[in-house]
Amino acid sequence: MSKEKPSFFDRTKIVLRDTLTPYVSKKARTHKTDAFEVVEPYPIGLYVFIVLIIVFILAIDATNVDLIMFFGNLDNMWRIISRLFNPNFGFIGRMWGPLIETIQISIGSTIIGAILAVPVAIFSSSNIVKKSIIYNPVRFIMSLIRTIPVLVYAAMLMFIVGLGAMAGFIALTIFTFTIVAKMLYEIIETVDMLPYEAIESTGANKFQAIRTAIVPQVLGSYLSIVLYNFEINIRSASIIGFVGAGGIGLLLNDRISWRQYEDVGMILLVLFALIILVETLSRYLRKRLT
Amino acid sequence: MDYSQEVLAVYESRPRTLFFKLGLAAIIIFLFLWSVPSVDGPLISQSGLNTVRLMFEGLANPSWDKIFSLKNFHVPYLMYETLMVAFLGTLIGTIIAVPLSFVGSRNITNKYVAFAVSVLVVFIRTMPFFVIGLIFIRVVGPGVFAGVLAIGFTSTGMITKLYTETVEDMDKGILEALDSTGATAIQKLRAGIIPQLSANFASHSLYRFDINVRNAIILGLISAGRLGFDLQAAIGNFRYSDAAAYLYGIIVVVMIIEFASANLRKKLIYGKR
Q: Which of B130, B144, B198 to probe the A interface (max A CBs under 10 A)?
């Protein structure tokens, strides 16, 4: 005997029933066999969905979404993109200076920030400094500094040290300093503390104990954190010029405002190659380190 | 003092890393010295010190009326607008990323398609997002909407990458089990795929939302968002009290978002409610 296939309407009804009844009846959430009885946790998916819809409507209202204008000007965008994909190779001669400056900014700021981060990370790890009155304020101040985006720092520093690479350099140093300090103290808190206690018990002071028991355990992770930050910094250093703080962003901004999209395409191509190169190198080194 | 023979033997065969360490130090010092010439000019000048003093004075007494007024274009409104930009951008990124990540997973499609998608993702991720913002400004004009589009576009890259990893870790045995019970496609989706992926997907989107809030702020520096634009204008016109008001708004909101998103993600992954 072959049963007839339920119609589309029936199937939709079944799916809706299966989805919605758990919200109203506990019975639908209870699965019973001879041996055991399981009650599903109360589902929250529908509420999340409703909240998302409300926030979506509010967001549409707040951000002046204008899809008609967007789709009307789409051909404009295709024109820009097609020009971007047609890079002007003759432009490469003017790029080397800013490009090298970008790399220099990111390397220098990574090194200084990473070195400055070490003492702060030690002071904010709870297993070395055992007093929460020391490590909690240090952590709080660091996360306070971390909330301000690096470009805002650069925009502010420009008025202190003037236009040029210095502002970007200091901004990236601040950023690296806070991020490395955070990641490093999280690593330090997971180390094996027994060697540290053993060395302290021989009468070594805190500095000696850290050097012999903690440093060998975290050195590899530390270097890999630093490399990871270098990856981030090279991206940041390439856009830091948009606010006037040195690097290739200055040139990029200039070319975009002159609507020389072929030149922009060339810069993007070189940046693409640089970022891929740095990422590959840093992934390789990080794999070797851990 | 006489050590036992075994201790001495172990000590003698300790790993020799002196050359490695010296080499590493030499490379780092060389790179550092090479990068120093980029920072030329006087570090601290008299006017610079003056500016620092004025900035700290501004931070000490921000314009309280801007912080606590609910009028348009004051701090709470600007923060609300920034959050909405980040939300809408994340939503666009998520909506594009869901199909793209299924297409880009090696266990669902063949490896050539997956490779093409991964190239696209790398391409989107390496584009500096200010460039994308400026292109969208050319398309829809300066304003918040350009920021939404730019954030949506840049989010797509990272969200797709994270989603693809999740989809590739998916347990396909459950789908076969559901097949054997005679489940329809919709039922398989509801009972087999959504429960497996939704928690991780939500967690990745939340993580990106956290980043997007910061990006929405700094997109204002190129006039694709109001908060960053006003902040830059305040700094540029030496209105440091107003700038401090915006900065305090940023600090509070970013910290709350960071805290909330970290906790929610922990709950999503470890399943505590």
A: B130
Task: Give residue-wise pLDDT tens across range B185-216.
Answer: 777 887 888 888 888 899 999 999 999 999 99
Cβ of B140 within 8 Å of Cβ of A56? The answer is no
Task: Give just the sign of the alpha carbon dihedral A53, A58, A62, A67.
Answer: positive
Residue A87 DSSP one-character state: -
CB B117 within 8 A of CB B111: no
CA distance B224 to chain A (A): 11
User: Contact, B67 vs B59, CB < 8 A?
Assistant: no
**Cβ contact (<8 Å) for A144 and B91?**
no
pLDDT digits (tens, 9 = 90+) for B138-170: 888 888 999 999 999 999 999 999 999 888 888
Q: Break chain A into its structural domains and give their ranges.
A: 8-65, 96-289
For residue A19 the two structure tokens come to 């989805």
Sign of the Cα torsion A86, A90, A96, A97 reads negative
Integer-rounded Cα radius of gyration of chain A: 28
CATH class for the domain made up of A96-289 = mainly alpha
Q: Which residue has the tokens 């840049």?
A: B154
Q: How far apart are CA B94 and CA B106, in angstroms?
A: 20
Q: Which domains does chain B have, with CATH numbers?
A: 61-270 (1.10.3720.10)
Interface confidence, given as ipTM, is 0.83
Does A1 have pLDDT greater than 60? no
- Is the Cβ–Cβ distance between A255 and A264 less than 8 Å? yes
